[in-house]
Fold Carbohydrate ABC transporter permease.
Amino acid sequence: MSTTSFGEPAIATLENQLDATPEQPRRKVKRGTWQTVIWFVVLIAVTAVVLYPLVWLLFSTFKPNSEFGSNMGLLPNNPTIDNYAKVMEGIAGVPMWRFFLNSFIIAAGSVIGVLLSSSLAAYAFARIQFKGLGILFAAMIGTLLLPFHVVIIPQYIIFQRLDMIDTFIPLLLPKFLATEAFFVFLLVQFIRQMPRDMDEAARIDGAGHVRIFWSIILPLIKPALITCSIFAFIWAWNDFLGPLLYLTSPENYPLPIALRLYNDQTSVSDYGATVTASFIALIPVLLFFLVFQRFLVDGVATQGLKG
């Protein structure tokens, strides 16, 4: 009798707990669902705000010149494709494809020069012990604090005396000389966090610095190299001041300088062609970023190998 009387309340309590347990996950699921929906709506709103200028630029390419200044809305009142026809014809007697080719040569050459020179300099700073290492590394870091405008006149005088003005050499030669301290510093920090055991094992097998750099270090710093290539490409593609200083012939102009030709302070500016050319100039950068976006995230997030 005692066992039965004692067990009935326990069984009833257990049944009440079993009946109540399914409600708690439902409440958690509902609460989690609402939080997800709120975050999703917030992210959509932020994305819309960030992408609105790009969307406005896209729709503005279909606006005639008469609507610029009067129609600031998103959609054009009288859509037209004449702006694309004007841009494809070119300006100043130079077709648009020539401007694209010049920009691509400068951007691709900058990427190649940055990857070659910066990786070699970074390996020297990170793996080779030599006299004056600390002083040279500090001087290299100090160039990050030196504005580009300070060295404009000396560099221009040097290239002018070398008869290199109105060529791509002044824009590409510094890239092959490891003058971009940002990329060198990024690769140095990446290489320093790699264990030296692989280097020592390679030296035991008779490998030198060239073999170690090419066969061991270079494959391991691939995420950092891709990060450097993305930034180097975008910066060179969008560079305006450098080509403005060293290039004088319209047939050598890249896209940033070509965009200036559509606007003349002494006459009527073709805003429709300017907007259209600006949008077309953005397409390679967007495609380049979308293709290598995953590698960019890996390069920023990866801190190298830890022993």
Notes: Residues 1-6, 303-307 have pLDDT under 50 and may be disordered. Residues 143 and 275 are 36 Å apart (CA to CA).
